[in-house]
Every structure is written in structure tokens, then in C-alpha cells.
Fold this sequence. Notes:
Structural class: alpha+beta
Radius of gyration: 26 Å
CATH architecture of the largest domain: 3-Layer(aba) Sandwich
Oligomer: single chain
Strand content: 25-35%
CATH topology of the largest domain: Restriction Endonuclease
CATH class of the largest domain: Alpha Beta
Order of helices and strands: HHEEHEHEHHEEEEEEEEEEEEHEEEHEE
Helix content: 10-25%
Number of strands: 21
Number of domains: 3
Distance between the termini: 64 Å
Number of helices: 8
Amino acid sequence: MNNWSLLQMLGSIPGQREIFEEICRKVVRVEHPGAWSPREYQGDDGIDILVGDLQTGVDIYQVKFFRDVVGDSQRAQIRESYDRILEVGAPVKSWTLMLPLELSYKEMRWFEGWKKKTEHNIKLVSGFQLEEKLRRPEYHEALRVLSSALSMVGLQIIWFERPAPILKVVFGIADPFRSAAHKVVYVHVFLENVGRKSVKNPKVYVHYSEPGIVALAENPVWKKVRGAYGLSGLNPRILETSGIIRPDESLEILPIQYPLSRVQEIGIYCKLLMDDESPIQSGVTISVDEVPQDGWKEKLGEEGFFPVLHPCPTDPDPSQNLSPGAKEILNKIIGSETSNEGRGIILIHGFPSNNEGTACVFSLTGGNTVGYRRDELTSAVEELIQAGFIMELDRDSTRTRYKLIERQS
């Protein structure tokens, strides 16, 4: 039970709703001192809190005191409130929905799907996000409203401690290793624990806009969660670590690079799984206009936000988007003998017997084995699969065969 559940014990639903709306008003006014409420004057047109003016543009906040679920009735109310702002006639910069509850995965998927169909920048502030704000001194007036309301029925505010790791990105421009003539946007992806409880043994699912160039390795403290035969995807990527992220600490997950000349918007999504805790999902977007020309910029993700993952266009020459290791493997496959099935590579399972090395044959029919470090060869094969250069032909308990996808010249 959270503090918004305690608020329901006041009895009258209209009274609960009014108290929650007043808390939301005071929260927004801390962040935007000029915010005002049309409802306090002469009707709201689907607007509870408004920031800005009707001539230059406004940011609108809509408060809904949904107590348990966001079902068909609640979704209809959300759509109706949003549709009413279209009748106002003023330029709308954004529309933010404020709720006392956390959306379920199914509810969040509906919200994100509906948001894509709208004409404006749609945001969500959940009950947990509001509670995190009320803990901070600058929101003392909003906290006083909640505390006074609960005291009327002999209740006190209860703060529930849980880890609150959130997605954080640090990004800037740097010269790529391939050529000083082109610039690259480097994005360093972190988990930052903004809560008051340590995160133990985290596992993360990270999905991001396809960069169109080489995928970089994750921070060595993270290990890939691999599937059958030791292979795992690069994007999305599932990682785990046995480490601990303490309050106010951050841990880098991985770097990503995007060609500045081709990227338009970067989206990054992270789902975090923890021991004895419910999953936390967060996302962030970076527009090309936000990228600094000098130095680095930091941006926190939003909990419960599912960004659109627009892929970055690739180089016209696909091989220029590969890492040096993947290029080497590709060149050897291209230079190998052609059989009736074409050209390809065979990965041999369990040879050699140690965990560091592995062996392969650059032919689909067999031949001399070549040794590689297991992690380097596996990463190169994964990259070539993802880039569409090779495909799995068949496998058994001793080997897997990958065939070169012949391209038209």
C-alpha cells in the first residue's frame, strides 16, 4: 500500500480527487512557478494545470485520480480529455497525464500505442514519481497537503524504500576511429540509483535505436546472458552482473556510437530485473539538436517511458559499418572456397576444450581449423548475422554452419 492508497481511505471520492489535484498543482508550480489552473477561474477545457500563455504556446497537465486500473472507461476519459485541448485553439507544446498509480505492462503498452497516434508530445507522471518528488525539500507545500489530508483520519505518510535505478545517458561528439573526416555521437549508457536502497545482482534488457555502424562491447563488469550454443543478440542485449549499485552510485552499461551526419533521433529503453524487487522500466530520447558540439551532456531517462527506436540509416557500403574483427571474418568467408551450398563458416562446439578459445573452418564442407578467442569470434559472428551478411544454415551437437548471403553487385 502506498500513500495514494492511504488517501483512498478518506472516504468521498470527489474529496480524494480534489486533494490529489491540489498536490499535483503544487508540484508543477515548484517546477514552473508561472503555472496556473483554468479550473480555478472559468472552466478547464480538459486542462487542470497550464504552463505558458495562449499566444506563444502552452504545456498542459491533466490530473486523473484513477484508483486501481486504467481500463476501458479510464482510457476513454484520457482520450476525451486530450481531445478537448484540440478545441482550445492555442499552440500546445506538450500534454502530461498525472496519475496516482503505476501502469501495468499491458496498460503501458496501450498508453504508448495511443501516444503515437496523437499530434503532441505526450508524457506520463506516475504515483511513484510523485512520491519521489514529495521526499525532496522544495516540494514541502505539496507534502503538507498530503500530510494534512491523511491526519484527518489518523494516518501518517509512509515512505516505502526500494531501489530506484534509472537510465542515464552521457553523450557528446568525438572523432570516430575509422576516419578523422567524420564525426560520431558517442552515447554512454548508465544505470543511476536515485533511490535509498542498494540494487543487488541486476539484470538489464537494453534496446536502442540501431546505430548503423559497429556495435561496441558492454562494460566488462556486465556479462551477456547467452542463449543456445553461446550466442546472444547485440540489440536488444541482455546483461547481468553480480555487483551492487548503491544509492547515488551509477554503473555504466555500454557505449553506443552513431554517425552524426545520418542520425536524427536516438531512443534507448532499459528494463531492469532485480532480486526480490519488481521490474523497473525506463527510457530516454536524444534529438540531434541536443548533442553538444563541445564536451558532454547528461540526461536522465523517464520511468515507464517506451521511446520510439528509429534506426539510423546505414552507410551505402555495408562493410563500412562493421568492426575490424567482423570485417576480418567476413573477408575470410568471402575468400573461401565455394561449394554447392555456397560459401560460409563452420563453428565447432567444444573445441578446444577450454573456455578461452574456439575453432572454426572457413568452408561449408570442412577443412583446416582456425583458432580464435571464443568471445571475439562469437561477437563477430553475432555482428555479421545482425548486419545481414550471414545466416544460420544448420546445426547439430558438434557444430553450427553459417552461410554467406550473396549480394548483388
